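If it is no trouble, can you show me the amino acids of a protein and the tokens describing how it folds?
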Amino acid sequence: MNSVNPYQYQLKMLEERITENKALVEDPELGELARQELAQLEEEYRQLQAAAAQLDTDDEAGSSGSIQITNCIIEIRQGAGGDEAKIWAEDLLRMYLRYIERTSLKVEFLDEMVIKVKGKTEVALPEAEPENGSTLLSAYDLFRFESGVHRVQRVPVTEAQGRVHTSTASVAIIPEVKKNAIEIKESDLEWQFMRAGGAGGQNVNKVNSAARLTHLPTGITVSSRQERSQAQNREIALEMLRGQLWEIQEEERAAAMGEARSAIGRAQRAEKIRTYNYPQNRVTDHRINESWYNLEGIVEGDLEEVLLTVRSRLLGS
């Protein structure tokens, strides 16, 4: 699937403003102002067209050597809120798993709160998409904008006074990239191995199979403990690191192409992107200022409309 040029939405808005001003050029009172603004808008439009054309050229030039991202890793961490935050993190994981069950995507557990989502699935594009209809989206393309802080407002089951509590959990969407896509120097890596603990058999508990990896130049730390062998956990940790380093490279490349391009980069883990308000039965995505009044259904996996609406709006379709 071809990526959407991030300048598309801005060009469309400029076209509308140019049309409006052209209609006012002959107006006896507003004509002069309309002509002045029209000249400015047309110049902006030419500059933006040139930037969009350059972006397409850059994308085409790099397409043969670029990688196609299909699979992704979803990592969830509890935030502020104690036991309720832990429950909320588990609820988010369950929400994603329930949605994935409705699709042709495949899921693999990498750790207790880390899953890999694989493959492509057919989805119905929102009406806002230029080519409305069904299309195949990869796991990464579908979930890529879920990164960030997900906040819940609800009365915990342990709350005797019936007070609403606010808890958070952070979601990270990490693309699965091929080994040769990112160069990682062994000298930049610091490894720690420990007993994994928890379920998984005696081998997990008695052998230092869990792996924690720190990338010294960036300070990124990842860990894996789900698999029973140290070698498997090493591979998973390296896979997660490669994805995060690739995202950093993409952000730097995006920044070099201009603000509009970088604005659609990955959300930071610390950015609050969505609130799930149980008393009001409302889910609000703060990036696009959109709300849905089907909270229970969404948390039970009825997530496709949210995913596709956010994707469409953030890509500027």
